[in-house]
Each structure stands twice: as C-alpha cells, then as structure tokens.
Design goal:
Helix content is 22%, strand content 29%. The termini are far apart. The mean pLDDT is 94. The chain contains 6 helices and 10 strands.
C-alpha cells in the first residue's frame, strides 16, 4: 500500500486537538473524513507526528497516510484540501518509504509561543496578551534551566508513574519582534501541557512574580510538591507546532512571528 508524507498547517481554535476523539471535533478527524470522501475507501492509516492540545495551532504538523490510490500526490493534496475546512490546509504531500513513520522517525520537534505586549483586535486567537512589562533578560536567564536532559514532573499533566517525564530540551530561544515576544522550544519530544507550563513560568519571572532561579527549583519539585507550573500555564492560543525534524533535516532558521504586531 502506498505511503505518503503530509505537511499540514492548521488553526487549532475550533478543535479539541489533533487526535481523533469520540464526540469531539479534531484535526485528524477532519483529515480522516476528507480521505474517506476523496478515496471512497474505509481502510487506510493516518498517523501524526504527535498530539497537539485543544486550541493549539500548527505551522508544520507532519503525518503519514497509507492509502491505496491512483492519484498523484499533488492531485491528492488538492482534492483533500477541497474537502477540508478553511482552517486546515495540507501544504505538501510526497511519496514516502514504506517504513516511514511520522511519529517514530521524528528526531526533534519545535514549538513557538507568541506573547503580545499590547492588546490586539486581530491577533487574539494567536497570542497571549500580557499587559504587565516583561523583563526579557530575566526570562532568558531562567530559560537556561530547561536545557538538557531534565525531569519535567511538575511541568506536565501526564502521570509520572505511567510515562517517563525525562525530556531532552535542545534549546529555548527568546526573541522580540515588534510588540511580540517569541519563545521557541526545541526538544526530542514534549509532554502534555509541558511547553505551556514552561512559558507560564517564564512569563511569571518576566513579570517579577518569580525569580530567575525559581525555574531550576520548580524543575526539581515533584507535581505534588509544587502546583506552581500548572497554575501558571500559558493559554493554548499562543502556541504553535513550528516544525518536526527528521534525520538529515536542517535546524529551523531565525525565529519569525506568525503574524506581525507593531
């Protein structure tokens, strides 16, 4: 059965995340429906590189699709897009090796978070507006604590007894673009709500509510010992899955905003 690699962008505002769920509208569910409509088949395999939570967006989600079809990749892409809602778009479809797996073969993932320093009439679904001044230098100092192989017990809603909370974070970069503060987190993989809790802690440090040294302290706390990261979790609106990297892929270039706010 032919296997295809899909590159997908979506605005997650109207969806309960990527993965198919009963009684909920999801991105994977919409693509699954479109594949059934276009191919008139019920037997195929569709897997994403990982889950995104409710309300989280993607600039470059990757999925693989195993499907019997005579359609060339570009024709398949166009027909699927014709069936998809306007807030989900398949950017590219390419033939992939039969053993390619979107999740298992990924070597790194990048997330981008957008904080706006001003109220915006148009960007609300894609930013977190923080009205207080933020100390960028303190946020950068604190972000170093997250880099490396760390236990993120207090930074996830996953059960540490059922799933390892050790994650390799390759880098946390913070840049400014107009009224936006952009935070890029790159790592091997990410736990449920992990990036949003990291951003929330960094924002609290930027506001002066926590010290830069508190980032390292919170990393060493168990979920029961500190509820701080959960209480500070950033909203989903500002979070984007920016890139999924596979063997041989180049690292992402300079951080760029998804939309410009001056």
């Amino acid at each position: 059965m032919p296997r295809f690699k899909l590159l997908i962008e979506y605005a997650g505002t109207r969806y309960s995340g990527w993965q198919i769920q009963k009684n909920a509208r999801t991105v994977q569910g919409e693509i699954d429906r479109a594949v059934r409509e276009v191919s008139k088949r019920r037997e195929f395999e569709l897997h994403g590189s990982g889950r995104t939570d409710a309300g989280v967006h993607a600039l470059a989600q990757v999925a693989h699709l195993e499907l019997y079809t005579d359609l060339p990749p570009e024709s398949l892409r166009r027909k699927l897009n014709d069936e998809l809602p306007s807030d989900i778009h398949i950017r590219a479809i390419d033939k992939a090796p039969h053993r390619f797996h979107a999740r298992h073969d990924a070597v790194a993932r990048c997330y981008l978070y957008q904080i706006s320093r001003r109220r915006t009439a148009f960007g609300k679904p894609f930013v977190w507006w923080i009205r207080e001044p933020l100390d960028i230098a303190a946020m950068r100092e604190a972000s170093a604590a997250f880099v490396g192989m760390r236990h993120f017990d207090a930074f996830t809603a996953d059960d540490p007894e059922e799933k390892s909370t050790r994650v390799l974070v390759n880098g946390v970069d913070i840049a400014e673009a107009g009224a936006l503060i952009l935070i890029r987190v790159q790592g091997s993989h990410f736990l449920w709500k992990m990036v949003r809790r990291m951003v929330g802690v960094l924002a609290a440090i930027g506001r002066g509510e926590l010290k830069a040294s508190d980032a390292a302290r919170l990393l060493n706390d168990s979920p029961g010992a500190s509820a701080t990261p959960a209480a500070l979790a950033a909203p989903a609106a500002g979070l984007f899955l920016e890139a999924v990297l596979y063997q041989g892929d180049a690292a992402p270039g300079p951080i760029k905003p998804v939309l410009s706010i001056d």
